[in-house]
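Job type: complex structure
Entries:
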Amino acid sequence: MKIRLLFTYLFFISLHVSAQKGILVIQTDFGQKDAAVATMKGVAMQVSAQLRVFDLTHEIPPFNIWEAAYRLEQTAKYWPAGTVFVSVVDPGVGSERKSVVLKTKSGHYFVSPDNGTLTLVSQTLGIAAVREIDEKVNRLKGSADSYTFHGRDVYDYTGARLAAGVIKFEQVGKRLPDSVMRIPFQQPELLHGVINGNIPVLDIQYGNVWTNIPEKLLKEAGVHFGDMLKVTIWEDQTPVYRGILPFVKTFAEVAPQKEMCYVNSLLNLSIAINLGNFANQHHVGSGPEWRIEVMKN
Amino acid sequence: MKIRLLFTYLFFISLHVSAQKGILVIQTDFGQKDAAVATMKGVAMQVSAQLRVFDLTHEIPPFNIWEAAYRLEQTAKYWPAGTVFVSVVDPGVGSERKSVVLKTKSGHYFVSPDNGTLTLVSQTLGIAAVREIDEKVNRLKGSADSYTFHGRDVYDYTGARLAAGVIKFEQVGKRLPDSVMRIPFQQPELLHGVINGNIPVLDIQYGNVWTNIPEKLLKEAGVHFGDMLKVTIWEDQTPVYRGILPFVKTFAEVAPQKEMCYVNSLLNLSIAINLGNFANQHHVGSGPEWRIEVMKN
Amino acid sequence: MKIRLLFTYLFFISLHVSAQKGILVIQTDFGQKDAAVATMKGVAMQVSAQLRVFDLTHEIPPFNIWEAAYRLEQTAKYWPAGTVFVSVVDPGVGSERKSVVLKTKSGHYFVSPDNGTLTLVSQTLGIAAVREIDEKVNRLKGSADSYTFHGRDVYDYTGARLAAGVIKFEQVGKRLPDSVMRIPFQQPELLHGVINGNIPVLDIQYGNVWTNIPEKLLKEAGVHFGDMLKVTIWEDQTPVYRGILPFVKTFAEVAPQKEMCYVNSLLNLSIAINLGNFANQHHVGSGPEWRIEVMKN
């Protein structure tokens, strides 16, 4: 009798321990002034109170798919394999874009409209498989009358069920070809000593300009700490900034208010003013249409 | 001997598993620039490190009880029964308003000053019982000298204890009559083919105008997708907007920058400009004093 | 055989239960518009998925060490002993400031650059010991090429490992003398009936002015509720405000828009306009250079 009780205990405990693995990370353009994000978390708690729910950011500028793509790329690889990301930046809600779950070769999952949001993680983490969410199965019960909050009823609900182990990846829906919609942008490349790249995003809090040019490419171009670099920044065909800047290891190496190039925490070339705001001062923005050219002076 | 050790293990585990059910959701008008919200979470962790603590929002405009009421209403039903909500929007702190816990028929708990914050959830989720917080029992130890942070010392502390199962609902304090303070506003109603309702809140991130008119009432009035609707919006006695708009299923059905009516994620009539900001463009606000009139054109 | 299985279960469960104690509280000046904070949480989840991770605030004004110090002080004592705080406000990243973990006599841990951030908690909670983070051991694997995101690679990683019990305090690195860098400011003092103090911070959401003058010192000076107080506020040598205000228990005791003194939730003297914004109206700021003088009228 005692033994039966004991095994009943153990059964519930084992359930509990396995569910604990579920990590859900949510990104939206909803802001946090209203209850939309909280509602998504409530739905996740209904799926499983054992889920660990985190915010990526909810301050993606409304409808800015490119920035959503970049934020996923910036953080995903620092999370354990098995983490499920839900991203809801969806200007086309109700239109014909597909709702998908991307599994990357790194073992991360991304639940999102297939509208370009997966441009960067699909490239850097690699596509293991893409499945289309079958809304007949993976949709919050009682939500069929709601036409507009796919973030809650489909993406969040599916992501929570996947993270909690209620469904397996195979149960998301039918498998699609191994590709996602990609937004075109300047890939980093070295040509005749000139490095070209994209400005995917600004480090907004400080006004630093981040590029997609990896430190490795700088090394290939023979650039070393202490070198002076000739930098040009373009918005489409318009040059916005030209300057010659030192390439330094840390901010502390230049005087306050001085411009500099450095390697940021993602190991990419970046540009800043020490204790200042480079982007504001030089009206530099970011996105697929922003391009940077760098060469040794 | 081994068996005793084993049962000691099991005892602690069973404690642990039962405490895990506790979900605490916090709403305030404190913002998140200072440490007030974090302090409330610290107190919750002192009550039980097993609690799962979530933010509803902390961006309620200071002292805006109506918006606090609306945010609770917007999210509560999406959380599991047993969830405890703590809401601290309290312009009357230190005055004679009562501190209460409302249990709704849906099984949710709301810890709040009884100042109108419970207007909407008490109506839509139903009152099961209301109890007044007995501060002699349910107040953070050592906080008796503090006169102004009831949010931390009384509401949060009581909510955390309730969520963690440290106290039962009956131990909150003495039972009050089954009613709470309610702010008057235009209930949704259909009269001679004209639908009247309230604008409880804006979908601020996008500037959409949300009403309290349920889809069901539109159907009763014979309104169908594809119809043109004549809409008038009033602030008290002043007409602020008049227009004739299509009633559509999804944003994608109208051209960018076009006005439209749709059913929002709460299944209520809403008004928007596709990829634009209706509220800003037409200076429409929200609150108990905002009214909307809709009829088929 | 069953018994072996059972003990295997119990082994994993015991691991699980002990890891559950880990509470990690993160403060930065990063904002939440990008993925930096989320990345720190991802690293924490890699260390242990059992950690309970909280935000103190991420809205410290960029590089404002004083405010970082104050926010820690404001909240720390409300968290259980054993809580690990990680604070990353680090204008000197890459310079010679040390990376330390402070253990206070209250049993809390603070992981931070030693740049003044620990000024207040070291004073009020007491220094038990200070250790310098040994980056050879306590640094995220694979991050050695990254020069600038110590917040993620060193502070957060070390804090997560400490909170999860992966390392003990003694394994942080070598012990330093029992002191931290302190920013000078006006300590609260009573001299010939005049009380002097500092304005460490504003209650920004409401515009209330908080001082470091404890209620106890007011009592020593013979100040009682109902008294009128003569108040002068200085920024360095410049007087910014002079007034005579009632000392009241609650906001509700004065009419709307009236100025008043009260005791805030930290049991310190504070100044406000009931339902108004004192700081904005009188251009009062905060920081080590702000001083207040109070006496009975």
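Summary: Chain B is about 25% helix and 30% strand. The two ends of chain B are 82 Å apart (CA to CA).
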